[in-house]
Write a structure and sequence with these properties.
307 residues; six-stranded mixed β-sheet; 51% helix
Length: 307
């Protein structure tokens, strides 16, 4: 009685169809480079310590389907990126910086970066810039504590709702992980060199996409788990930090043009001062020589007079 078992050729044909299906699914799947557009954060210039607005109670504009949240509101169940910046004039920059660091340690935060400068060599003209990472619940209290160190020069804060982006990226990571697992299973069943090379190439591409998505998700979790605050401490004699927006407009252009004109004049006078000794030396030698040779140059030649 003849055997009805499928041959090795039939098995290879079936495996080839499965590989082709997986590759086609990978090509038509969502690209890892696509990401949901996060809602734009609303900038709040905190000129006064007013009361907090109620969450999503007409105070936040709708942008791209996501509510724009004021920085002073901490909504539950949302992924919010808090960022703030504050400049304070203090009597002692070093002492104020130590107080800020002590406050950050007390709330389990991190001083991510710190830079202290003293342009005039005096403590009163020194400045310090600190980058703070604090839990979102301590975002407002830390800003108030820093403002209480001296005279607040400027302050701004933003809140950006990235809940949709976090959910979308998490879903893409899970989908890509399942896709990588399927391709790895196919690789273990490949028989020929050609099949191995083809599947390994596809596996490398999908693993790269997975790593990119995981990095995006890790970044989103990092900026939502800890708020960022840029602190600028200014001594009594140090100039006030300039805002980039102040460098725009007619007056800013006029100041820039005048500064450029002064620089050109200074360069020209410097070049003239460098050349002046050579010009004087040339005049002392050249003028007497020209006066000595001038009569001979004007005297007619004998041939001209005899003709």
């Amino acid at each position: 009685m003849p055997s009805t078992r499928p041959g090795r050729g039939t098995t290879r044909a079936a495996l080839g169809l499965v590989i082709a299906g997986v590759l086609l699914a990978g090509c038509s799947g969502p690209s890892s480079d696509d990401s949901a557009e996060p809602a734009s954060g609303g900038k709040v210039a905190d000129g006064s310590d007013g009361g907090a607005a109620p969450e999503n109670a007409g105070g936040g504009a709708m942008t791209g389907g996501e509510p724009t949240t004021a920085a002073r509101v901490l909504p539950g169940g949302r992924d919010i990126v808090y960022r703030g910046s504050i400049s304070v004039r203090v009597k002692d920059v070093a002492a104020a910086a130590e107080q800020v660091e002590a406050r950050i340690r007390a709330v389990d935060g991190v001083v991510f970066a710190e830079e202290t400068t003293s342009d005039g060599g005096s403590a009163s003209e020194s400045t310090a810039s600190l980058t703070l990472r604090v839990p979102p619940t301590e975002f407002r209290p830390v800003l108030k504590a820093v403002a209480a160190l001296g005279k607040r020069l400027s302050q701004s804060q933003t809140a950006e709702d990235v809940t949709t982006q976090v959910v979308d990226t998490t879903s893409r990571v899970a989908t890509q992980q399942r896709s990588v697992s399927r391709v790895r299973a196919l690789l273990s069943e490949a028989d020929t060199i050609g099949e191995v090379v083809q599947i390994e190439s596809e596996l490398a591409r999908r693993e790269s996409d997975l790593e990119s998505l995981e990095a995006q998700l890790a970044r989103l979790k990092d900026v939502t788990e800890l708020a960022t605050i840029e602190v600028h401490l200014v001594g009594p004699g140090a100039p006030e930090p300039k805002d980039d927006e102040e460098d725009l407009g007619f007056l800013a252009g006029l100041r820039g043009g005048w500064n450029a004109f002064v620089q050109v004049v200074v360069v020209a006078l410097t070049a003239l001062g460098a050349l002046l000794p050579f010009l004087l030396a040339a005049g002392l030698v050249g003028v007497p020589l020209w006066l000595l040779l001038r009569p001979r140059l004007r005297r007619p030649s004998p041939e001209a007079s005899g003709g």
